[in-house]
User: Fold this.
Amino acid sequence: MLVEISYVYCYGEAYIPPKDWKYSHNMVNRLYYIHHGSGEYICGGQKYKFKKNRLYLFPEGAEFNVISYEDDPLYHTYIDFEVIPPFTYRKVFEMDIESDSFLKASCGIFLEGAKMFSEGGILSDEILRRGTAAGLCFANICYLCEKITGDIKNADADIYVKDELVNNVVREIIKNIDKELSVKELAKQFFITPNALIRRFKKKVNTTPYAYLKKLRINKAYHMTQRGYSAEEAAHACGYSDASSLLHAMRDFKDLK
Assistant:
């Protein structure tokens, strides 16, 4: 199955404070690389120790906490990304990059590229047009994501949404994140009734089309503000009329199911 990676948000090497550190939100896929330090993550009520030279995939919907040890704090690089088809997989996946030379090389390029966007750069088509370095970084991020999801597939065959209509709706939502988009319009485009679309989408993705669009908008706005954009700029880029509407939506995002 061809995996499409979209809206990659990249963070360079950073320090994790020595305390319980809650994931900012659980509405995006996150790929971690641990440079050095000691710590653990808690997922599903179980504690797991981080290992060096590992990639960790925390799929969308996987609630977790990261704990960094005070005497040897963690330093990490991570990327947040969307994937089409969406994951149905909810377990943390670990990969040893030392076991695959090409994977190790790709991870190295990703880490170097992450330094270019250490303030939370959004690697999109706009970034790709700026030069080959960004393009190479994006290509290797895509490879890492496809490699790790491919390994998950070998371990657990049912990890993606397999409904073509639902995946096409997801693609349309991502494409129009900054535009007015209603369930009625989506249903008309795909020759299905609004109620039938909502039922089918929720069955596969565990949320409604509108809630999915809202979480994408909030994710993008969050990362834009992390990069220094104003709330007003982020609002207009993410389909909101003004900063007040965006901030109101962000206060409510935890209620999305």
